[in-house]
Each structure stands twice: as structure tokens, then as C-alpha cells.
Design brief:
Layout (H helix, E strand, L loop, with lengths): L89
């Protein structure tokens, strides 16, 4: 069994990150309005459902689990009247 260890270290100074984004609230603007059309329907073929795989690499998976056993016990309690001890009035 081979274990692959891939690691990439990227080091940058704080000044190379760029400026902090500052967002402000503003009015809503419609930049473009495109109406639906049937002109291009003949150029396309409808497929339903569409499921396509585009990954050409092999799928590798490795999982290691090393846990300690935990002993548990189910316990219950029966309350017949309230939750106070009998000496409390």
C-alpha cells in the first residue's frame, strides 16, 4: 500500500494580499433584461434527465480509523410525583 503525501506551501507577505473589500448598501439596479425566445430551439436537443461524468481521472480513496472502545450503559429513572426528595416540603 502506497501512501501519497501531497503538500503545497504558499507563502505571501500581508502586503501582497491586496486591499480589504468594503461593501455598502445601495439601490437595486436592473442592468439587463433578456426576454425568452424560441429562435434557437432548433439548434439544441433536449435530454431529460441529463447525467454526465466529465472526470477522466481514477478515483482513489484511503481511510484510516483508530478509535478506542467506549462502554456505555442505558439507565432510566422513574418519577412518580414531582422531582423533589421526599424530605422537601
Amino acid at each position: 500500500i502506497r501512501k501519497w503525501r501531497l503538500r503545497m506551501c504558499i507563502q505571501k507577505k500581508r502586503t501582497e494580499f491586496g486591499k480589504q473589500c468594503r461593501f455598502t448598501d445601495g439601490d437595486t439596479q436592473i442592468l439587463e433584461s433578456i426576454l425568452p425566445t424560441d429562435v434557437y430551439d432548433d439548434d439544441y436537443e433536449q435530454r431529460n434527465p441529463v447525467v454526465t461524468g466529465v472526470d477522466t481521472t481514477r478515483h482513489w480513496s484511503e481511510t484510516e480509523v483508530n478509535t478506542e472502545r467506549v462502554i456505555i450503559r442505558n439507565a432510566s429513572m422513574r418519577h412518580t410525583e414531582g422531582g423533589w426528595p421526599k424530605d422537601v416540603d
